[in-house]
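Q: What residues go here?
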């Protein structure tokens, strides 16, 4: 099974980009500082056990997005050593954690799930293209994933806990090569098409 580091190395080749380091091993001190800041922020915000209102008729994906934004909004004001910011542009990562003292930008991917089952093998997509990562972050690059675990209670959800995963170059990942098209590509393609 490939590692996260294998994925980025192969991805750069696939994209025709020069080799570069897109992932580094977490220093223990930085990891500890983030954990400590998040633990204090969660306690001060009361996020664990809080209820997040959900818009009526929301899809599962929409519920996840609403939970993610709610959690970020609750945690951010209470962080003291870091700032949670939106990462500009589309694709991975959706957020970044910025170290206040030195400006280090850390890719942060927010996820939300109604059930954390350690034996669940359903995919949680992290990244596809390296473009955004290469344009926003400079080495060293540490990757963080935060998952809000919630329970549905009536028309809202209760945030039960937040899991932080400090992804390492050696973190095992599933890689799936995919091809996609767009209306634009289909429109300019040299294949036959017909509208009925």
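A:
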């Amino acid at each position: 099974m490939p590692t996260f580091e294998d994925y980025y190395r192969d991805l750069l080749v696939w994209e025709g980009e020069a080799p570069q380091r897109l992932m580094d091993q977490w220093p223990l001190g930085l990891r500890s500082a983030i954990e400590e800041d998040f633990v204090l922020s969660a306690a001060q915000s009361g996020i664990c056990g809080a209820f997040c209102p959900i818009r009526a008729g929301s899809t599962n994906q929409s519920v996840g997005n609403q939970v993610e934004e709610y959690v970020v909004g609750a945690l951010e004001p209470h962080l003291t050593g870091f700032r949670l910011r939106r990462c500009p542009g589309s694709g991975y990562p959706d957020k970044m954690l910025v170290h206040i003292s030195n400006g280090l930008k850390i890719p942060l991917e927010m996820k939300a799930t109604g059930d954390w089952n350690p034996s669940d093998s359903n995919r949680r997509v992290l990244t596809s293209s390296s473009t955004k990562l290469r344009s926003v972050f400079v080495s060293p690059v540490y990757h963080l994933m935060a998952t809000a675990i919630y329970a549905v209670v009536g028309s809202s959800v209760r945030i039960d806990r937040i899991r932080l995963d400090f992804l390492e170059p050696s973190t095992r990942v599933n890689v799936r090569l995919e091809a996609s098209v767009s209306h634009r590509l289909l429109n300019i393609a040299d294949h036959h098409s017909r509208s009925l």
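A: Context that may help when evaluating the design: Helices lie at 4-15, 28-45, 60-75, 131-136, 183-188. The mean pLDDT is 91.
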